[in-house]
Amino acid sequence: MKNALITGGTSGIGLGIAGHFAANGYNLLVNGLERNGADIAKELAAEYKVKVVFSSANLMHPEQIREMVQQAEQELGQVDVLVNNAGIQYVAPVDEFPEDKWDAILAVNLSSSFHTSKAVWKGMKERKFGRIINIASAHALRASEFKAAYVAAKHGIAGLTKVLALEGAPYNITCNAICPGYVRTPLVEAQISDQAKAHQMSEADVIEKVMLKKQPVKQFVDVCAIAQMALLLASPMSSQLTGTMMPIDGGWSAQ
Ligand code: NAD
């Protein structure tokens, strides 16, 4: 039985990945800021008959990240799979972009993945097995206006992914990024209203003319597709699959 640590595992895409991993027999540490995180962990454990522990570590703080990884190692035994999924968004033109939002987005969407990866690295290296999966974005490959911090952080994740793949190669540690297009999660629900203000459009027009305009397959991406890709990347069979940026974006990045 393998263990996975999933940041932001108590909402949206991360929760979907947690459910699929639990259904496939993984023990989990799920992390997130949701107030009912401990209840979510209990429900996953009861439904899938695996061990699920919860951490409310705030990923803005590297010392809390290190404590979270220690908790996973103590309560699960070891971390075999790390899914760096937690993320936040803020939408504004660059000249109005609040500096504290820039700092927070870089901290949560980029730096936290360095700190988690560093903290699990020693154990993965010793055991000669590790799978690091970064939930990046189509915005790791393409830009959109009004998202300076998010696009910069996600492009940064692309670089981190490739470096970890190179450094992990001698130790059977792989690192890959999944790059989803729009997925209808709480993060996107908030963006629909923010984008409506920024573009001065109705919310229905934002969905049709701004978001899905870039996705030739005119549907939001299904969380299950992302979770299935994460399971494949986590598999011991995927040792040659490393350093990639996997788009699941309805054809967005084909353009
Ligand atoms: P979400 O808002 O549903 O979930 C985000 C999770 O991150 C939550 O559990 C939240 O508590 C956690 N989180 C946020 N800040 C944190 C912090 N400081 N410390 C600890 N946890 C924190 O969002 P989602 O849409 O499921 O997004 C998950 C990931 O997928 C993000 O990295 C996002 O950028 C990426 N992504 C989302 C979409 C989309 O369309 N939803 C598309 C591409 C990529």
Automatic annotation (TrEMBL):
PROSITE patterns on file: ADH_SHORT
Transmembrane spans: none
Protein origin, superkingdom: Bacteria
Gene3D superfamilies: NAD(P)-binding Rossmann-like Domain (3.40.50.720)
GO biological-process terms attached to the record: monocarboxylic acid metabolic process
SUPFAM superfamilies: NAD(P)-binding Rossmann-fold domains
Record GO terms (molecular function): 3-hydroxybutyrate dehydrogenase activity
Keywords linked to the UniProt accession: Oxidoreductase
EC number: 1.1.1.30
Family: Belongs to the short-chain dehydrogenases/reductases (SDR) family.
Name of this chain's protein: 3-hydroxybutyrate dehydrogenase
Upper taxonomic lineage: Bacteria, Pseudomonadati, Bacteroidota, Cytophagia, Cytophagales
